[in-house]
């Protein structure tokens, strides 16, 4: 390929960066200015012009998917394969080095990676052996302490305990590390730290890699943490050159130890030059102007200005939804018209602050038969905590459900170990019994030692008691009681950090899902619980689109980093949701939330919708939120507010779940309770309920063929018959 072609499609500043002489460089630039593009072209340039071998190139990306894409883009640009090039995440690349040098790293050849569940299970075992009360010292909190120390590059010997509390955590760290080393196990944080230490302690090895990786490149540098920075510094400390690209305004992992200051440290430590890119190629002028205005409210920015030659584009639409269901309906409606206009689903993304928010949207998409893909996360009913809770419910409603039994017998931990379980499994096999009955038989035959027998008996009693309790309750209460009494809630509440919080929120959202569940009329179930369980298992098996299928992209704002989509919806942009409640409590968090909002808005290329709901039922509670402060920070000329206009206006009765409906409200709708109506798609039905007022009002109809549905009155096109 011709050299000039490598520089085609780049502006002057980008060319300057791509064709710069070998040196250390920082590309500091706002969203959509072509940082990632520059990185790709730089790699191609190094190979083509500097005659660098693919073996000498080492590139770090933020996700494995980004690594794959980058490799493909380099190959496309060069039109040749670049197999020997090292490209991956910090974890992936460190792991690769550890595999190659496991002996020097004091690891067995077959060393295994411990995921966070395994890690906690291990800590729990140690706590027992050390006689430490797990209620006071939850395993999750300890694992968090250990990982945070490792992320700072600290081993137990490097830490001076402040007080008795820290001393205890330190003792657990020590014991945990010994146990991992004995068993040949490494957790995520260990992968980085171990690799760092390996390179530090083995000068020959370090020199080897320093000489080999002449060219190092790092994307999304603003989100590196301490150990990653030290690791880079060590590896890039020889004859090699390093180019980092980043945007201080997009640093969104401070809560996980990322340090924006690393950008400034880099400039000093590496004596690097800075190149700024200022032209944005991604978004319309309107989207860009609004994002710039938003981020200007942060202090201590490194300062960048972005401009575009692109057209003005449409204003950003802001939709004030009545509640989360209305928000989902609005979003899906817009996606349908996008599709009808001949566009692809895959070009639109729905972005939300918390994983739990996806459920209502998933259901609305399923209802319309639209494919979707959840990116970087699991579908709601496949999440660990949700599966735990559903397994209790399954076992309660069907004692023969062995999979459910296996999942919950020792979750939360109740001292039932592998030995006891294998006794039960043997008995089940020998006597052809489901595990539940085998467990009972094993107890009756007194085949278990005292403690194990007590633990199993307690478990059996727990499930039987729950079964009795549930009889009288409604579905949502059944779920709530089960989640609380099983100990699942307490277990997940004890998990500290963002993940633990998310799990508890998801459990609460499950209760919410039960509350909103409507039994399908066309199928027969012995109870609402049976119906709900059937629905969840179908739900989790279907709908998720295959990789190449055209599907709506759904993800958290965090996972959207680096990506772009023609059409973007940001949902749930309300005070208390986004910025999140917690961000008021910790200093600096509000600015991080604003950066997250900036990341979200700058994903949009052509059109951006932002919505907020007046009332939102999430985590099992209905809350009233005001629109996010971030919305007030957007210039008026960039936005348009969408309201559904009707002549009727009336003080709102906003509680969708209130059982009593005033007659006046019904009259507003033009329909009466139990009136027969005709819908163009769903056919004939009977009016059951009515809520809200004016534009926000909706009506519940039990259709003869398709069952009960809530419809927005203004859109429903119902006719009296
Ligand atoms: N000189 C250019 N001419 C035309 N299109 C460009 C140019 N530079 C970048 N682009 C396009 O602009 C979009 C944004 O580029 P890119 O993803 O590299 O930006 P970025 O700075 O890495 O963004 P982010 O901060 O979100 O990661 C891409 O679609 C890219 O192909
Ligand atoms: Mg990028």
TrEMBL record:
Residues given in the record as ATP binding sites: 29-36
Domain UvrD-like helicase ATP-binding: 8-284
Catalytic activity of the protein: Couples ATP hydrolysis with the unwinding of duplex DNA by translocating in the 3'-5' direction; ATP + H2O = ADP + phosphate + H(+)
GO BP annotations, alphabetical order: DNA replication; recombinational repair
Keywords: ATP-binding, DNA-binding, Helicase, Hydrolase, Isomerase, Nucleotide-binding
A molecular-function term among this protein's GO annotations: 3'-5' DNA helicase activity
Key word DNA-binding present: yes
One GO cellular component term: cytosol
Domain of life: Bacteria
UniProt cross-references to InterPro entries, sorted A to Z: DExx_box_DNA_helicase_dom_sf, DNA_helicase_ATP-dep_UvrD, DNA_helicase_UvrD-like_C, DNA_helicase_UvrD/REP, P-loop_NTPase, UvrD-like_ATP-bd
A Pfam match: UvrD-helicase
EC identifiers of the protein: 5.6.2.4
UvrD-like helicase C-terminal domain location: 285-562
Stored PROSITE patterns: UVRD_HELICASE_ATP_BIND, UVRD_HELICASE_CTER
UniProt family annotation: Belongs to the helicase family. UvrD subfamily.
NCBIfam families: PRK11773.1 (NF008743), uvrD (TIGR01075)
Protein name: DNA 3'-5' helicase
Lineage of the species this protein comes from: Bacteria, Pseudomonadati, Pseudomonadota, Gammaproteobacteria, Alteromonadales
């Amino acid at each position: 390929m011709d050299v000039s072609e490598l520089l085609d499609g780049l502006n002057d500043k980008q060319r300057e960066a791509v064709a710069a002489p070998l040196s250390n460089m920082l590309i500091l630039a706002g969203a959509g200015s072509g940082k990632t593009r520059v990185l790709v072209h730089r790699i191609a340039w190094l190979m083509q012009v500097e005659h660098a071998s693919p073996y000498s190139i080492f590139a770090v990306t933020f996700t494995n998917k980004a690594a794959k894409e980058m490799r493909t883009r380099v190959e496309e640009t060069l039109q040749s394969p670049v197999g020997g090039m090292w490209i991956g995440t910090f974890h992936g690349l460190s792991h690769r080095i550890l595999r190659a040098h496991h002996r020097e790293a004091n690891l067995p050849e077959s060393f295994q990676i411990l995921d966070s569940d395994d890690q906690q299970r291990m800590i729990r075992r140690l706590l027992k052996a050390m006689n430490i009360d797990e209620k006071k010292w939850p395993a999750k909190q300890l694992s968090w302490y250990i990982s945070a120390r490792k992320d700072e590059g600290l081993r137990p010997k490097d830490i001076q305990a402040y007080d008795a509390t820290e001393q205890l955590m330190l003792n657990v760290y020590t014991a945990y590390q010994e146990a991992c080393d004995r068993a040949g196990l490494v957790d995520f944080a260990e992968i980085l730290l171990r690799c760092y230490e390996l390179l530090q302690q083995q000068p020959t090895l370090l020199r080897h890699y320093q000489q080999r990786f002449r060219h190092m490149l790092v994307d999304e540098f603003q989100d590196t943490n301490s150990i990653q920075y030290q690791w880079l510094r060590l590896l890039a400390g020889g004859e090699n050159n390093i180019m980092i690209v980043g945007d201080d305004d997009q640093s969104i992992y401070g809560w996980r130890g990322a340090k924006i200051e690393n950008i400034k440290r880099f400039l000093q430590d590496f004596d690097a030059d800075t190149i700024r890119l200022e032209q944005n190629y991604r978004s319309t002028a309107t989207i860009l102007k609004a994002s710039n205005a938003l981020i200007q409210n942060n202090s201590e920015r490194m300062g960048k200005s972005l401009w575009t030659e692109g057209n003005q584009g449409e204003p950003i639409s802001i939709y004030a939804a009545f509640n989360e269901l209305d928000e989902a309906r609005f979003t899906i409606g817009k996606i349908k018209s996008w599709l009808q206009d001949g566009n692809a689903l895959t070009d639109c993304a729905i972005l939300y602050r918390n994983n739990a928010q996806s459920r209502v949207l998933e259901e609305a998409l399923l209802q319309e038969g639209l494919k979707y893909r959840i990116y970087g996360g699991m579908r709601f009913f496949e999440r660990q905590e949700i599966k735990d809770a559903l397994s209790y419910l399954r076992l309660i409603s069907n004692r023969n459900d062995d999979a459910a039994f296996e999942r919950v017998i020792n979750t939360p931990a109740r001292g039932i170990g592998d030995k006891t379980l294998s006794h039960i499994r043997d008995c089940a096999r020998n006597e052809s019994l489901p595990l539940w009955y085998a467990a009972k038989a094993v107890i009756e035959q007194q085949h278990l030692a005292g403690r194990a027998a007590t633990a199993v008996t307690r478990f059996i009693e727990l499930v039987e008691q729950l079964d009795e309790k549930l009889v009288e309750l409604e579905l949502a209460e059944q779920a709530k009681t089960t989640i609380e009494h099983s100990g699942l809630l307490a277990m997940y509440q004890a998990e500290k950090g963002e993940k633990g919080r998310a799990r508890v929120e998801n459990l609460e959202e499950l209760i919410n899902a039960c509350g909103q569940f409507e039994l399908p009329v066309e199928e027969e179930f012995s109870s609402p619980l049976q119906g709900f369980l059937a629905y969840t298992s179908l739900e989790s098996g279907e709908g998720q689109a295959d990789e190449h299928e055209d599907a709506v992209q759904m993800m958290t704002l965090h996972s959207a980093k680096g990506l772009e989509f023609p059409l973007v919806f940001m949902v749930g942009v309300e005070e208390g949701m986004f910025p999140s409640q917690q961000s008021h409590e910790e200093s600096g968090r509000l600015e991080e939330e604003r950066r997250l909002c900036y990341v979200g808005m700058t994903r949009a290329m052509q059109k951006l919708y932002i919505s907020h709901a007046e009332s939102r039922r999430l985590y099992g509670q209905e809350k009233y939120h005001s629109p996010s402060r971030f919305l007030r920070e957007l210039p008026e000329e960039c936005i348009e507010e969408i309201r559904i206009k009707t002549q009727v206006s009336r003080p709102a009765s906003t509680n969708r779940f209130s059982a009593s409906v005033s007659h006046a409200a019904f009259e507003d709708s033009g329909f009466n309770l139990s009136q027969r109506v005709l819908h163009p798609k769903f056919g004939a039905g009977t009016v059951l309920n009515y809520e809200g007022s004016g534009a926000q009002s909706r009506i519940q109809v039990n259709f003869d063929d398709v069952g009960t549905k809530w419809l927005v009155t203004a859109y429903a096109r119902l006719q009296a018959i």
